[in-house]
Every structure is written in structure tokens, then in C-alpha cells.
């Protein structure tokens, strides 16, 4: 972990109080059930979160926020993952508050509404299979072209942060768009997403937050923050699933012994624990890197996503294997933990896309200078 993320005793005490308070609130107000909450219940919980200061916590102090760092914001995301919260907190407690540090006027004006819980953001990017998104001159200012990808909670958001023209600074743009009504899809893990209808949408020029290199830098930061939050949420879900499975194995008896007393089961749980700790290490690296150099931040985020898609899913599958058939019933949480990690691993191109990104960013097109061919 980088030096700027080392915690003083006071910071560690604050972190502990924040985490304990968040866990207590979420377990009391949002305990996991196989039944989906109603929109009214979700709105009531969000108002309570705003009253607790969750959405103002990460905002810069000049906009009335607490200036909390990434590790504190990610603690809330992680605890939400533990209860498999259906609505993502990532955009509102981490991504947008950090983006406001860049001083985009069209975004900072929304800070009071975000702090009060009245403004909700969803992160929208182009669908590569449809050629991505681009911006062209329009009747009112600009016009979006192309297809958008699946965005978590786009149907419940009041505003969409839209990344367009990511391939080149000549066409890159970051926009803040007032959300339109859009039907949501229920994902396999119970969360909801939507594909915003963006093709041909005319927007005022004020919707454009940044263009060119500034837009690319902001889009990269958004993507890396979102990846760190995705991994934190998955880690929280997996940690809670491991606790639940260990408790089950220590209670369920077979042949006069608890299941947890069998050596094969112990080995299975030891492997799941090691995978979980690997994911935690990468989560902390990605959190620490959010305030570092863009190249390090990008590498950490991509590496964490790779571990999520490999070790994370492997650990979740081991929990199901140890729990037996009950794990795949709708009424038991462990199966839903696996589904949540499946969705997380597949978002934004999935694990293979992150591996290709790491290879592109790390390896020279000419190969490593110390490879066997060069040595010969």
C-alpha cells in the first residue's frame, strides 16, 4: 500500500467506526432476502443513507462534503456488498465525488442534490459491439451517435455520466445527461440495469463536461474508480458468503460429526480463504492507487478485476461445493453471492478484456527485452 494510504491511529479509529456503523445500519435496514424490495422501500433507505451523510462524505469540502478518502468510501461499498444490496452505491459515494475534484461546473452544481440523496448517478459507456458512442454537432448543441452498453441502475438514476469517443482525444467527450425513462432488466443476481437509448439524442452544449485529453483523463479515472468499487462490493459479498458457509459447516452434522471436521472440507475452505485474501490484497492496492499516477491506478484496477474473475469466482464456487444442493436454492444466500460475482466479472468486457489491457499496457509490442529470443 502506498504511503499516502497508511492510516494513522486516529484514521484507523474513524475507519472502524464508519465500518461498524455502516454494517449495523445495513444489516438492520437492508438484510438480504430472496424477495426484491419495492421502489418505495429503496427510496426510504436512500433517504436514511443521505441523513447519515454517506453521499456527502466523499465530496470535496468546498462543496459541503467531508473530503473522505477512497478507502473510506470503498468501506461503504464493501459493506453494501455484504448484504447484497440491490442498488449500487459506487457512483454516488465514490466515483462522482472524486470526479467533482476536477471542478466541472455542470457536475459540481449537482453536489447539494447528491448530498441530500435527491440526485442519483449511473455510469454509461458505449457498447463496443455497436461501435461505441460518439458526439457530433446537434440542433441544440451536440448529438450522441451509437449504442450505449448495459449500465447498472440506469433506470433509477436522475443523471447519466456518459463516456463517448474513448478511442481518441479528437472525439473524446464526457457528458452529464439528465436521465430519461428507460425500462430496467433484472440481472441474474437480482440487481437491475438498463441500456439507455442514446443514439440520436440531442443535448445542450452545457451537457458536455470535458472534451479531448481532459475527457480521456476523466473517463479513465471513472473507469478505474468503478473497477475498484466493483471489486470492493464483490469482496464484501464473498466475505459474508464465507462466514455463512463456515457457520453452516460447523452446525450441519453427518456420520456423527460436523461437516467442518472433515479434512477435505477444511482444505476446500482454506483454498476459498486464500482466494478471498488475494482479492482483498488487490482491492487494497486498487484503493491505494486511486490517488497515484494514472498508469499505476489503471494497472491496479485491471489486476483487481482479473483476480475477481478468477480467484473470486473460484472461491464462490468452493462455497457452493461445500454447502451442497442447498446453496443453489433461491432462499439461500450463497448461490446469490456466486451470481453477484458472475455479474461483476462480466461487466465492461469481463476478465479477458482486463487481461488484454494489462498485456497492452505492460508489454512492449516488440516483446520483453529479457525473453529467451533476446537472450539467445
Automatic annotation (TrEMBL):
Family of this protein: Belongs to the acyl-CoA dehydrogenase family.
Acyl-CoA dehydrogenase/oxidase C-terminal domain sequence ranges: 228-359
Domain of life: Bacteria
GO MF entry, a single one: acyl-CoA dehydrogenase activity
Cofactor(s) required, per the database record: FAD
Protein name: Acyl-CoA dehydrogenase
InterPro entries: AcylCo_DH-like_C, AcylCo_DH/oxidase_C, AcylCoA_DH/ox_N, AcylCoA_DH/ox_N_sf, AcylCoA_DH/oxidase_NM_dom_sf
Domain (Acyl-CoA dehydrogenase/oxidase N-terminal) ranges: 13-87
Keywords for this protein: FAD, Flavoprotein, Oxidoreductase
PANTHER family documented for this protein: ACYL-COA DEHYDROGENASE, ACYL-COA DEHYDROGENASE FADE28
A Pfam family: Acyl-CoA_dh_1
Lineage, highest ranks first: Bacteria, Pseudomonadati, Pseudomonadota, Alphaproteobacteria, Hyphomicrobiales
Amino acid at each position: 500500500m502506498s504511503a499516502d494510504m497508511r492510516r494513522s491511529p486516529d484514521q484507523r479509529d474513524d475507519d472502524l467506526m464508519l465500518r461498524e456503523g455502516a454494517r449495523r445500519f445495513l444489516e438492520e435496514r437492508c438484510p438480504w432476502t430472496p424477495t426484491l424490495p419495492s421502489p418505495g422501500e429503496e427510496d426510504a433507505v436512500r433517504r436514511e443513507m443521505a441523513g447519515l451523510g454517506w453521499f456527502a462524505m466523499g465530496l470535496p469540502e468546498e462543496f459541503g462534503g467531508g473530503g473522505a478518502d477512497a478507502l473510506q468510501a470503498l468501506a461503504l461499498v464493501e459493506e453494501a456488498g455484504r448484504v447484497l444490496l440491490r442498488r449500487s452505491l459506487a457512483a454516488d459515494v465514490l466515483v462522482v465525488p472524486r470526479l467533482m475534484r476536477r471542478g466541472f461546473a455542470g457536475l459540481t452544481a449537482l453536489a447539494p442534490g447528491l448530498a441530500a440523496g435527491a440526485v442519483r448517478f449511473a455510469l454509461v459507456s458505449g457498447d463496443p459491439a455497436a461501435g461505441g458512442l460518439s458526439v457530433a454537432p446537434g440542433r441544440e448543441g451536440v448529438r450522441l451517435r451509437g449504442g450505449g452498453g448495459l449500465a447498472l441502475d440506469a433506470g433509477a438514476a436522475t443523471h447519466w455520466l456518459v463516456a463517448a469517443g474513448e478511442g481518441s482525444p479528437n472525439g473524446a467527450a464526457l457528458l452529464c445527461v439528465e436521465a430519461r425513462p428507460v425500462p430496467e432488466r433484472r440481472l441474474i443476481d437480482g440487481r437491475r440495469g438498463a441500456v439507455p437509448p442514446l443514439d440520436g439524442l440531442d443535448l445542450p452544449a452545457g451537457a458536455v463536461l470535458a472534451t479531448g485529453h481532459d475527457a480521456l483523463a476523466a473517463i479513465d479515472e471513472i473507469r478505474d474508480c468503478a473497477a475498484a468499487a466493483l471489486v470492493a462490493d464483490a469482496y464484501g459479498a464473498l466475505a459474508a458468503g464465507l462466514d455463512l458457509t463456515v457457520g453452516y459447516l460447523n452446525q450441519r452434522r453427518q456420520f456423527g460429526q460436523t461437516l467442518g471436521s472433515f479434512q477435505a472440507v477444511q482444505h476446500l475452505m482454506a483454498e476459498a480463504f486464500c482466494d478471498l485474501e488475494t482479492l482483498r490484497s488487490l482491492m487494497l492496492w486498487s484503493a491505494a492507487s486511486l490517488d497515484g499516477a494514472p498508469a499505476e491506478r489503471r494497472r491496479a484496477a485491471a489486476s483487481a478485476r482479473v483476480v475477481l474473475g478468477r480467484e473470486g469466482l473460484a472461491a464462490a464456487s468452493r462455497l457452493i461445493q461445500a454447502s451442497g444442493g442447498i446453496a443453489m436454492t433461491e432462499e439461500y444466500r450463497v448461490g446469490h453471492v456466486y451470481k453477484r460475482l458472475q455479474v461483476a466479472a462480466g461487466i465492461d468486457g469481463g476478465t479477458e478484456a482486463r487481461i488484454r489491457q494489462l498485456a497492452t499496457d505492460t508489454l512492449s509490442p516488440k516483446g520483453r527485452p529479457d525473453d529467451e529470443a533476446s537472450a539467445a
